[in-house]
Amino acid sequence: MLDDSAKSPKISLLQQLRAGDRPATERFVRAHAGWMLALAQRYVKDAALAEDCVQEAFLQAFRNIGGFQGRSALKSWLYRIVVNAALMKLRSRPCAIEQPLDEQDRCRIATSWAEMATPDEILERKEARELVEAKLLELPDSYRIVLLLRDIEGLSTEETARLLATTEGAVKVRLHRARAAFRVLVEPILRQYV
Amino acid sequence: MGNRIGERASRTCWDLEDLVADYLGGSLPRPKGLELETHVDECRACRAFLAAYQRTVWVAKRALQCSSVPAEAPEALVQAILRSLYR
Question: To the nearest 10°, the Cα dihedral for A62, A65, A70, A76?
Answer without folding.
Answer: -30
